[in-house]
Amino acid sequence: MDIASRAWVDSPPDEIVLSVVVTTFNYAHVVGRAIESVLSQLGASSELLVIDDGSQDETEAVLRDIAVPHDIRAAFYRQRNAGPAAARNVALQYCAGSWVLFLDGDDMLQPGSLDTILDVLDKHPDVDLLLGGHVVHFPDGREKYRKPSKLPATARQRLIDYLIHKRVSVSHGCAVFRRSRLGARPYPEKLRQGEDIAVFAYMLSCPTCITVDAPLATIFKHPDSLRNDVGLAISTVGVITDAVFSRLPPEMREYRKTYEAQRALSAFRTCYKAGRFEEARMFYSMAFNLSPYQTAKRLYLWKRLRMSLVFRQVFRRARL
User: How many domains does the chain have?
Assistant: First the structure.
């Protein structure tokens, strides 16, 4: 049977522990790799859902050609293009598992990762967030294993390390969420970039967060990622900040300005790399007004000084 017409007939929903959700948009050339990496590991206590976010390429045809074993639960849904946040929220309506792992359509699970996850969940049934390691695959073919971040014991320190100090890293593909928790913090659908930050922050504020020192996924880096979209970076500084702090504990509000400064500095860096110096200068000034300490860090200060030199050179040439 093809994945587009697969019925829920094999494992009763109450026996499903883990739902794996593959979200895809115009990844016809690689989405089969992601799906096969899941199908090869599924058992009676896990399921696969594929959400096609209105792809305009051959994704639907690719999905229909994938052979699905008869002894597993798998289904395919297609929606009008609404962004990755909406795709993940739709998936949550159909998931049967108590926990969910989201996998982007251009990534893949590591062999044996589902067995590792299910073993951890069996031993720690109270876990809200499970973080594993992952393999980064670079465009030139190089690969590097990255261990999961060391998590502080308290939710407050986890959030500070994630939002402010960037000592904690969370990525789809190597993060497993308790599904009931996501009901209280759905993905903000008005965001097309950074939509996962608010969810990651909320999950890190939950009581039980643990790690497993094993690679759960391979994450493929590519230059056309939405994270490299300058326009989106510019337009989402305040929106991401609002989304992040709308569901966090009240005691975290004192860090709002500092985090917004971090977002402004991120937009400054993106504009700087793109040569959009006027906008870069605007975001640097915004960050300085919010948190002078943040802008004084060597990385940002050096780029700001170099940018000033560029402006001076352009001005001198104009006068000549």
Answer: 2
